[in-house]
Design goal:
The protein has 383 residues and is of the alpha/beta class. The chain has two domains: 103 residues, Rossmann fold; 255 residues, Rossmann fold, CATH 3.40.50. It is built from 13 helices and twelve strands. It has a six-stranded parallel β-sheet, sandwiched between helices. Strands 3-2-1-4 form a four-stranded parallel β-sheet, sandwiched between helices. α2 crosses α5, α6 packs across α8 and α6 crosses α13. The longest helix has 17 residues. The C terminus is likely disordered.
Amino acid sequence: MPDSKTKKLRIILLCQGGQGDVIAHTPMIRGMREKYPDDEIIVTCTYAHLFEGLDYIDKVVPLSNPGEFYTKYALDPDHPVRFFKKHFIYDAIMDEPAQGCKTLPEFICSLYGSEYDRGKLDYIVSADEDKIAQVFLSQYQQFNLPIVLLHCTGSIPSEGQPRKVHTMKDLDIEQVTKLVKAHQDKALFIHIGLAGEPTIEGSIDALGMPLREAAALIKHCSTFIFIESIFAHITNALDKKGIVVFRNTSTDFFGYANNHNIAYSGGCPIWPCNRPVGALMDLLPGYRNPKTREPVLWECPDQVCKNMPYEDLEKTFLEVLAEVTHKGADPALQAARSTPPPQIQLPNTAMPMGMASPSNVNVSHHNPPIQHTEEDENDTNED
């Protein structure tokens, strides 16, 4: 066996969970790099494209075949391994109520034994993605209004997942539509998310835009209204302020200080009361609520988090809009508005939401907003 003293040691990290959970692993990986500056850090997960551009990771490997990955990277006799760590975060959350940690990134750091630096999450918008976002927004520069992104639905039917798993994260589309119609003179609303989600009348329909391109819009928007999902996590990395609405999860544990985190009915008093979302429901039966020790449920029987007064959403929106516009011109937004609308195709190799196939963007000043029709995966991809 090679002498580990003369060879660079490997640290192998398997990051599991939904897409938002994956991004929440970045402070942990950053801490590993601080502690082991000379080691080779290899990260594998289902949503490997979310780690693109992070210079403290030596190699990112999509987790398509766990056995093949383990043989190639963990059992390679020519590359000694310092350690191979993997945790499924919802095991520990359900069984040990987050081990006393106050936030998801802190909790992940504690699981892997990494120092938590209390810094932001990391997510890199590439130069190509940045340009595509500016080109997309340049279609609407004539409106000269603050740009507000909307992401309202957490789970939709899709190929391979024909039924909607649950609606516990979804915003009330009628409420959001009412808000958009009432304030179209104050802001330009752009609706992002999976193709096939319910549309919002009065907003620009950008449903189906690949995830990384939609995430680049966050960098250039004025503010946003999101459910607790992948995009809410990315706002922390990009340091953008907006509204995140929580229904069945904790604002303290899953929320970030850069946002106005609001909860239906003041938050769920018995969280977590539902099963883990998406496909995890079928894979991980038998969990019990750590507070009551009762079996977790498909839906909240009392619907304690079902409705939020429209007035609360509108009041918070107007406060946030006033706050972000009071600061003056956003340089990124100004750059987007000053970008000439192109008449050529821009190459795009970004990952669609939950999938790994390229797409093309063809933006014209006279064309409707970019539309993508690729089917996507369900709620598990967005969390």
